[in-house]
Design a protein that fits this description.
mainly alpha; 8 helices; flat
């Protein structure tokens, strides 16, 4: 596993940087539309779709690059690699969401003031890492459900990245290439 992290750290960082960039974009879109719930949902949907597009294209390129190595006999075929890359890129998000739930549970069960403060700070970090989803998460009124949703939010990204990698490694395009022969 450490070998995988070492070999693929550039790809993982690229996917994480995409997440950070889209979180800023999503937060800006949300701030601009926060007064209208419908617009907030539309802006979140647009941010998510754009995020998924960026993930898909990045993963497709990684898969296509790996296809050359596999075809040349320099690397084994690893169809699950896109899913793993995305899981590692989303690891900070998942860990912070789990820590938020733990802090929230400690604060509510044992009335620990420090845990309540930690839960609020971690919840803020959740929103910072998932800005593209703010419109959706703001519609969840139950705080514990909203915090739990942050664990599930990376799943579509993992799925899109896995599919993008798989399609790239098979040289399958959803849309024709602009470089294709006329």
């Amino acid at each position: 596993m450490f070998r995988f992290l070492k070999d693929e750290s550039g790809s993982i960082i690229k996917l994480f940087v995409n997440q950070l960039g889209m979180t800023i974009f999503g937060l800006l879109m949300s701030f601009a539309t926060v007064s209208n719930k419908t617009l907030l949902l539309v802006s979140s949907a647009f941010s998510c779709l754009f995020y998924f597009f960026l993930l898909y294209t990045a993963a497709w390129e990684i898969g296509a690059r790996d296809k050359v190595k596999v075809d040349g006999g320099r690397a084994p075929k690893t169809p699950q690699k896109g899913f793993l890359l995305s899981l590692f890129a989303n690891a900070p998000t998942i860990i912070i969401a789990l820590l938020t739930i733990l802090a929230y549970a400690l604060a509510s069960r044992f009335s620990l003031l420090w845990a309540a403060g930690a839960a609020r700070a971690l919840n803020f970090a959740n929103h910072l890492l998932n800005g593209m989803y703010v419109g959706f998460t703001s519609m969840i009124k139950n705080e514990l459900l909203r915090i739990a949703a942050f664990i599930a939010l990376p799943l579509p990204a993992v799925l899109v990245t896995g599919i993008g990698y798989r399609f790239g490694s098979e040289n399958f395009r959803l849309l024709p290439s602009s470089k294709s022969k006329q």
